[in-house]
Amino acid sequence: MVHPDAEFREFLAEGRFMLQRQKGGAAFYPPRTIAPVTGSEDLEWFEPSGRGTVYSTTVVRRKPPEPSYNVCLVELAEGPRMMTRVEGIDPAEVRIGMPVVARVIDQDGQALVVFVPENAA
Amino acid sequence: MSPFPRGRTAIVGAATFGTGMSPGYSPSDLAAIASSRALAEAGLSPKDVDGLFFVHSVDTLGGMSFAQYLGINPKVTNNNRLGGSAFQAMVEDAAWLLDVGAIDVALIAYGSNQATIGRAQSKTAPPNVYEGPYRPTNPITSYAMATARHMHQFGTTKEQLGEVAVAARQWARLNPEAYMRDPLTMDDYLAARMINDPLGRFDCCLVTDGGAAIVMTRADRARDLPKTPVHVLGAANTTTHRDIMAMPDLTVTGAAQTGARAYARAGLTAADVDVVEVYDAFTINTILFLEDLGFCPKGEGGAFVADGGIAPGGRLPVNTNGGGLSCTHPGMYGLFTLIEATRQLRGECGDRQVAGAEVALAHGNGAVLSSQATVILGAPATV
Question: What global pTM score does this model have?
């Protein structure tokens, strides 16, 4: 089996943020071998809109000169929530309810989904 | 389903050991000494235990290790890894098992030396690979986001969080066993450095070592033992998620379910509870649990704790030992809420004693608001 985690990472390495859903059913995240709640093994990958809103947010404070950084939960337009961060603005300026758009970036050689404010996209 | 055995089992021994810094002691040493003392309160010894419920801070096979340490061969070995709520869930399990006669004496014990060896050495659960790359400094990052969401939805303020910290310290100052007994003012609280916005240093529980144990048996036997029995009136637990990204609503915990179920089993409501001990890993916990356990409406926890609402002399005695914030926090604090509740119902609490306390609620919390478990305890008059 190619593990769904590996499939997710392979999509990301191509610059594509993909989600799983039960065929004809609800999207979920993180990847799994069965759909949560229903248990269905009849799953498919699809490309979400990339849009979401900040559900909650914090600033992880570090001792200077190490920069403090944002960690937040983004609720995707397709339903699932994910831990991520909003980039491109001061970490303390990230607000609950802020509309954001996904970006796939390279972090230390690993492809990662982050978000930017919709009005900066 | 058979009804919960309301009042038919009781806590007959309770003890803590080494709840500050205890260099030289292993987690099992701390738990073993607490266990021996809890059993001695009931006139029992390890050989009498046939139901062993144990959590070791790092050894995930600790149930077996501790049976070996005690030199016993129990009929039930429960090695529950729910985290800080494990002990409330164990009380529920032990009540059912005792009541049907599967076991006669349950020992529920815990030991941790996390302060001595360092928290990094005490971790057993790896971070979720879908959260790790964003560098959360869990557990605080998850609780900070629950706090931010509560502030956003309900207007809860930093000062209201501060009321929780200051009240805990005021209670701790009445408890000779509490680890942090220096005065703490609102100014001190507000001036503390931020760690994960909006949580600062005094929003966070202590990091200590510690062992703890309670002993349960059936009520008919409990009557003949030395200490006043503290009866288990109701208990319930649930799991809503593991990682904060999967928590259905960051402002509503599983305590809303476990409280309702435990009250129904006890035939009581929040209005009947004289003293409340909740797992305060962070200041937001106390606010969330007071709401979810029915002491105030959802969203009004901040106002409920304001103006010394839960401090000594306030409207409701909450975390009378000083809580995880100021008394002790060896990593999985839930058992200490049960011990303080037991001592309050026995009338053993000296300067911090809640006069005439007959019903106590002890609530445990595991991981990042993930597992919730509630136990309602009563003095003999409640049975």
Answer: 0.98
CB pair distance less than 8 Å for A55 and B246:
no
Complex ipTM: 0.97
- Taking the Cβ of residue A60 and every Cβ of chain B, the question of whether any pair is shorter than 8 Å is answered with yes
Chain A residues within an 8 Å CB radius of B244? 73, 83
Low-confidence ranges of chain B (pLDDT < 70): 1-2
The overall average pLDDT reported for chain A is 97
Which of A 79-118 lie inside 8 A of B, CB atoms? 81-85, 92, 96-97, 107, 110, 112
Helix (H, G, I), strand (E, B), or coil: what is residue A102?
A: strand
Return d(Cα B354, Cα B292) in angstroms, integer: 23
Longest Cα separation, chain A = 50
Q: How many Å apart are CA B310 and CA A43, to the nearest integer? A: 50
Cβ–Cβ under 8 Å, residues B237 and B82: yes
User: Taking a C-beta distance cutoff of 8 angstroms, is the pair A1, A13 a contact?
Assistant: no
